[in-house]
Amino acid sequence: MHLMTPQRWLETYFDQTSQPSIQQLHRWLRDGKIPGKKVGGTWFIDAHAWLADGDELVARVLEAG
Questions:
Q1: Whole-angstrom distance, CA of residue 34 vs CA of residue 50
Q2: 36, 2 contact by CB (below 8 A)
Q3: Distance (Å, rounded) from C-alpha 31 to C-alpha 17?
Q4: Hey, which end of the chain has fewer CB within 10 Å, N or C?
Q5: How crowded is residue 52: how many other Cβ atoms within 10 Å of its Cβ?
């Protein structure tokens, strides 16, 4: 599991001109469209789970290294 803040995730995976808003990202997290967890009121995105998109082999490779 590789947890990232929403802002860092947006900066890493989206071009600045195509980034969804933080509010939209929080909505996706609440709706379960993006894997993440809320810790003490702050959302974190599980980047490895998002990249693997349900593929167990990809998930194991990402976790290994």
A1: 7
A2: no
A3: 24
A4: C
A5: 18
Q: How far apart are CA 11 and CA 64, in angstroms?
A: 24
pTM of the model: 0.75
Non-local (6+) Cβ contacts of 59 within 8 A are 48, 49, 52
Q: Residues near 20 by Cβ (< 8 Å), separated by ≥ 6? A: 10, 14, 28
Tens digit of each residue's pLDDT (9 = 90 or more) over 4-42: 999 999 999 999 899 999 999 999 999 999 999 999 999
Cα–Cα distance for residue pair 45/9, rounded to 1 Å:
7
C-alpha span between 15 and 40 (Å, rounded): 29
Q: What is the torsion angle, in degrees rounded to the nearest 10, for the CA atoms of residue 55, residue 27, residue 39 and residue 5?
A: 70
